[in-house]
Amino acid sequence: MPKKKNSQICIVTVTGVDKVGIIAKLANAMSKDNINIVDVNQKIMEDYFVMTMALDMVDANCSMTKLKKQLDTIGRQMALKITVQDETIFKAMHRI
Amino acid sequence: MRISVEEVFETVKMTLDHHFDIRTVTLGINLKDCMDRNIKNLTRRIEKRIIEKGALLNKFADETENRYGIPITNRRISVTPASLLLEPLPKTKASAVTLAKSLDRAAKKAKIDFIGGFGALVQKGMTSSDKLLIESIPQALSKTQRVCSFLNLASTKAGINMDAVVKSSRTIKELSRLTLNGIGCAKVAVFANVPEDNPFMAGAHHGVGEPDFSLNIGISGPGVVRNVVLQNPDCDLTQLSEVIKRTVFKITRAGELIGRQMAELMDVDFGIVDISLASTTSAGDSIAEIIEAMGVAQMGLPGSTAALAMLMDAVKKGGAMASGSVGGLSGTFIPVSEDAGMIRAVQDGTLNLEKLEALTSVCSVGLDMFAVPGSTPPEALSAIIADELSIGVINNKTTSVRVIPVPRKKPGDIVHFGGLLGSAPIMEVNKTPSTKFVNRKGRIPPPIQSLRN
User: Fold this and answer.
1) Using CB atoms, which residue from A50, A89, A95 is nearest to B68?
2) Angle CA(B219)–CA(B225)–CA(B226) in degrees, nearest 5?
């Protein structure tokens, strides 16, 4: 039997205009699907508000595709761009 | 070390604002073991294999796209050169057309938009099947939607097969006559030194030196490169080359990761990452606009060749550092109709056919997607093809020609192909064809490999 992975980190990126309740709304969605938030960072860059959230999906009750759909809905409601990507893509691109 | 917000933002911005995508995942499929003396047996076997694997390609490409958040724009299939599959069959054009229709049907069922490999390698000589395939192209490609054709007419080791060049030019003219605005010719590329693992259409095929299956990936990103050039308006060219290298390194790493992941999911060999910058008709996703961002007033003006050569070299250096599996064409495409900056340059008169040819001597992949008047005689096409292929043969590199003679159009007109193929301004071709030269036929011998100055 394949060994169960210890963690599967994904990065959620939120860009747009800062407002009240972004983290609350995302955290609420994550907790419903049993997704652990391991890190949160935010910054203003090139006039964009950017927030990144590292998630551990290893015990999640939903697939990445489903999570992506939920985040799209939240993004539309709050006029934000929200993406979710496996952490390995960033490691491949930014680490030698 | 955890990835920083800046690094995440850089990647996200590439896809959101600068059109970064995986341009194509192309599955190479060996069909040699499907060969038969009976065409029905052949088509049954190849359709089964293409449909099975093609459906998986789409499924896993969607999954991978969702996982990494980077769009995989095209999913395609390349197969063993069709002229080989024709060898045991009755020597009739009908065999070749039936084979093309079968490939088309299989691609349609697998929901694949283009399937490459309806071609032949004839750089030294043509078998009777090769000849038959070339002659069948007008009928085969005008009666199918998804089949693409390649012909390797020359190589550094064999020279240029002028008999095949002349034959191909007639084929291209005939195909142009049979399809609306000559659009069928967008599905035919003729080559010198064709790579066996190129994932990009129309020239993709699954070479004879390849395994049963091979997953090849074509990255893209002219928009990303243009953006970093624009962000560095005042640095010198050495520094600019460094900046381009670093960016291409990053996008190649993304391509390699996605390619390997796809190959693993499909349980096939991972082939290569093709690091070619490939323009699209979207605003900002243009090679000509990179050259202009570098400081050349407009594509085609003096300075363009040097700028393109530098861009090309930086792309190769960054890509080669990022992946041990760089292959395919790995250059910079400068198709006229698919690049807004190239179209503008032709319309403004800064880029003509002669300068385009000069540009192709420092980048792959030759004279691509350019339209000429439908009245251009086949001998003139042969001469254009021979010129372009000789650049590849002498310089040990791949060059190709994808020319579209557009019936009833004259220089200055523009023809709209739509979708990915864009719009092509009709380019001026000198009316005096070198008929005597091309009709001598025979083979231009391979070049000497020493005394290289």
Assistant:
1) A89
2) 130
Counted domains in chain A? 1
For residue B11, list chain A residues with Cβ-Cβ distance below 8 A: 85, 89-90, 93-94
Query: How high is the pLDDT of residue B342?
Result: 94
Q: pLDDT of B47-78, one tens digit each?
A: 999 999 999 999 999 999 999 999 999 999 99
Do B166 and B382 form a contact (C-beta atoms < 8 A)?
yes
CB-CB contact of B276 with B218 (8 Å): yes
Confidence at A35, pLDDT banded by 50, 70, 90: very high
Residue A77 has pLDDT above 80, yes or no: yes
Separation of alpha carbons B408 and B142, rounded Å: 19
- Judge whether B342 lies within some domain: yes
∠ at Cα B402 (B431, B398), nearest 5°? Answer: 115
Q: What pLDDT, on the 0 to 100 scale, is given for residue B95?
A: 96
Find how far residue A40's CA is from the centre of its chain.
9
The reply to whether B135 and B258 lie within a common domain is no
Hey, are the CB atoms on B7 and A93 less than 8 Å from each other?
yes
Same domain, B336 and B396: yes
Interchain contact, B9 vs A48, CB within 8 Å: yes
Its domain, for residue B122, covers: 20-192
Does residue B184 sit in the same domain as residue B226?
no
Other C-beta atoms closer than 10 Å to the C-beta of B428 total: 15
Assess contact for B71 and B65: CB atoms under 8 A: yes
At B278-287, the pLDDT tens digits run 888 887 889 9
pTM of the predicted model over 0.90: yes
| Same domain (yes/no): B343, B238 | yes
Decide if B11 and A48 are in contact by the 8 Å CB cutoff.
no
Q: Tokens in use for B178?
A: 């049979």
Q: Best mutation site among A7, A85, A95, A96 for testing chain B: the one with the most B CBs within 10 Å?
A: A85
CB of B66 within 8 A of CB of B262?
A: no
pLDDT at B33: 95
> Which class for B313: exposed (0-12), middle (13-18), buried (19 or more C-beta within 10 A)?
middle
| Each residue's pLDDT tens digit, B325-341 | 999 988 888 999 999 99
Average predicted confidence (pLDDT) for chain B: 94
What is the structure's pLDDT at B144?
A: 97
- Residue A77 domain-assigned (yes or no): yes
- Looking at the structure, do residues B170 and B72 belong to the same domain, yes or no? yes
pLDDT band at A4 (very low <50, low <70, confident <90, very high): low
Task: Give the total number of structural domains in chain B.
Answer: 2
Among all chains, which residue has been given the structure tokens 């800046």?
Answer: B6
**What residue spans of B232-303 are helical by DSSP H?**
237-266, 287-294
